[in-house]
Amino acid sequence: MMKNGTKKMLFGISLFMLFWVMPSFAEEAKPLYLAHNVWFEKPSSVSAIGYKRGSIIPAGTKVENVHLASGRHSGVEFRIPEWDLDIKVVIGGHQKDKLTAVELRDRMISDKPLDELLEGFTDQEIECVKKGYIAPGIRKEAALMAYGYPPLHRTPSTKMPSWTYWTSRFVTRAVRFNEEGKAMNGIGN
Fold first, then answer.
1. Would the pLDDT of 174 be above 80?
2. Domain residues for 107?
């Protein structure tokens, strides 16, 4: 059995940890950013399919409060403080059995700001990322940042030579890559 003095000391240490040590960990959390461009029409229900409609949130945009959404509409939720906007990216339809919320988060969110994400990119690739399109000659890495990941039910792997994107629910566009991993055609411009 603990003596009363020991209990008080443990209580004091607990308070110290709670109010002085723990907040310092939260303050040291790295900022987070979008790893690729994201389009949306309705911020509370952005499809993980990645339809290219509505407003664009640029790659490198700072995000906070990133967490996984579970239940019927699993996905990723985050806040864009600069825009005072909450976003929920929902995994549904054909993506549901092929993509987890954790995988979606890991694809969408980075701890690197835009200048680090663009390191090694050509001027053309940087322009494509900033304007949200794929041009002939850009590498797959730039295509992913510019246009996001292609939906898994039509493009199961980014190692494939052809990726299919949706511009809307009924319109698809394909981009083909050569053996060097460079786009042979453009989409989105």
1. yes
2. 32-176
